[in-house]
Amino acid sequence: MQTKVENNKAWFLVMPVFLIVAFSAIIPLMTVVNYSVQDIFDPYTRYFVGTEWFKQVMLDSRLHEALLRQFIYSFTILAIEVPLGICVALMMPTKGRGASLALILVAIPLLIPWNVVGTIWQIFGRADIGLFGAFMAEIGVDYNYASNTTDAWLTVILMDVWHWTPLVALLCYSGLRAIPEVYYQAARIDQASRWAVFRHIQLPKLTNVLIIGVLLRFMDSFMIYTEPFVLTGGGPGSSTTFLSQSLVQQAIGQFDIGPAAAFSLVYFLIILLVCWVFYTTIMNMQKDK
Amino acid sequence: MSLTLQNVSRVVDGETWINEVNLSLEPGSFNVLLGRTLSGKTTLMRLMAGLDRPSKGKILMNGVDVTGVPVRDRNISMVYQQFINYPNLTVYENIASPLRLAKMSDSEIDRRVRETAEMLRIDPFLDRLPLQLSGGQQQRTAMARALVKDSQIILFDEPLVNLDYKLREELRQELRALFKARNCIAVYATTEPNEALALGGNTAVLHEGRLLQMGPTSQVYHQPKDIITAEMFSEPPINVVPGHVSNDEVTFDDTVHFRLNNDLRSLSPGNYQFGVRASHIGLVPHSDDDLELPVRVDLAEISGSETFLHVHNPHFDLVLHLSGVHEYQVDQNIKVYFPTHKLYAFDAQGQMVHSPARMREQ
């Protein structure tokens, strides 16, 4: 029998990963933890305050409102983007030049940077120089995202749907392409309806990409910052101020580093929790089947 | 219910996939489509099903032209090489799905599903999802789905290819038994000659999109019309040796001679290709007119209780199919015995002009 050679070579192989994770995640996170338990006046004047900032954050009604808004926003865009994305994917051509063209057209919004998306919609929605705003004014709809809360919400949601539905569509499109042709053929022979094909062949085969799509869209939308910041600046009033904007206002606007750090940690935990709940629910649902 | 194909061709992008096929299938018949990969078996089935339209020719059902009728409006079923079931429906619901689409009553559906499941021995698994079953059970489910509705045509596209050997034999026998009682047309595509022989019924031999021969399976096997059919319908392929017939003897490649026996006397002098089945060449002479042939061993493939012995002499190669285990060294010199009364003869065009007497009687 061969004797095992023992050495510590494995450490060299693990080290790079460890270092990258340390610098990219652990150290920044620990810095934030460090801030969250101190009251900092300047780099030399700081006091340990324990859990005080956390208590303050948890009781802050402005943050409760922002959190509620955040949930409404995230679930609304999920409820629109997922079905819409599936529909777009189902309608995209699968063969020939049309297929490549459709892919490019659908992918275009994904290539535009967040702040540009905000700017585009800010101009697009203005009644004086924007096509959409002017059109609404023309047909007699009183539309103003800067002063009307409903309009502001509508615009923010429309903007996100425009920007991110393509992601869901592309994921579904790839999922649909992975279904062998014989399934459709078998369904035709069975005389199955279009709905039965979708419900019993396409949807089950799309489950996995949809889980990824929903998780990605949820996390992303829960952290949304740039687009509403550019479009409405969180207004009118604070009607489109989401969690990340409140955080930035607190950390950079007011320079309350301690409470802001505590807030970020709570924010982080909320995202983690929601994703975990979501993921386990879906996984259990699949197991039950 | 009969199915007739008249001069059916299918051309895709300038390539002929099916070439002028004429075929008539009787009700209650079991028909095997035998051909190598890419010979057009699946294409022909798709035409029969109505999934594709023929480029030329007509398809008749009971004498009625159905050429343009789409698959939805024909009463057919199909079983594939892959195990195709609805992944999120239970076995029960999978089998019931064609009946639900036919708007049958629940009690009737239940009766039929249970009956079919029992027939295919998947009744203990009715509540499971297809992916919780073994490959064989998944394919049984797919077959149950095809059998549960009273289709007039049931198409099997190499349904047993993805199963292991034992399961394949088992399912093949059951399948044959299942169809004995039915009055529908079964079409079964396969690449394996032995599978065709085991299934019996009729066999249609396809090659490069053409129908070479169609008839009762044993007849096609024993009386192949031409050399390609003979090669395709035996495993290992029939041995082909070029030879010359003169007034009183037969010569193989100018070196091997034997006296023209009664059996071959009907052949007029000239050049022929002689075919002899791998199982007919032996290591010991079986009768007086067996021809002794010195050969050299290339390879002895031993599979279980059979040996495939590949040998050559300076002019041609031969394969022997021997029962039992025979071990030989490569390049060993041995003698084999060629049954001169079991020869097929094919003319220059590859058409069969002579078959062994015993085979003719059958």
Automatic annotation (TrEMBL), chain A:
Isomerase as UniProt keyword: no
Broad class of the protein's primary localization: membrane
Record membrane topology: Multi-pass membrane protein
Domain of life, source organism: Bacteria
Transmembrane segments: 12-37, 71-92, 99-124, 152-173, 206-225, 257-279
InterPro entries listed in its UniProt record: MetI-like, MetI-like_sf, Sugar_ABC_transporter
Cell compartment(s), UniProt: Cell membrane
Annotated ABC transmembrane type-1 domain residues: 67-278
CDD domains: TM_PBP2
Recorded family membership: Belongs to the binding-protein-dependent transport system permease family.
Protein name as annotated: Sugar ABC transporter permease
Native species: Marinomonas phaeophyticola
From TrEMBL, chain B:
Domain ABC transporter: 3-233
GO molecular function: ATP binding
CDD domains (UniProt xref): ABC_Carb_Solutes_like
Taxonomy, superkingdom: Bacteria
Record bears the keyword ATP-binding: yes
Pfam family, any one: ABC_tran
Keyword list, A-Z: ATP-binding, Cell membrane, Membrane, Nucleotide-binding, Transport
Record-linked PANTHER family: MALTODEXTRIN IMPORT ATP-BINDING PROTEIN MSMX (PTHR43875), OSMOPROTECTIVE COMPOUNDS UPTAKE ATP-BINDING PROTEIN GGTA (PTHR43875:SF1)
Name of the protein described by the UniProt record: ABC transporter ATP-binding protein
Organism: Marinomonas phaeophyticola
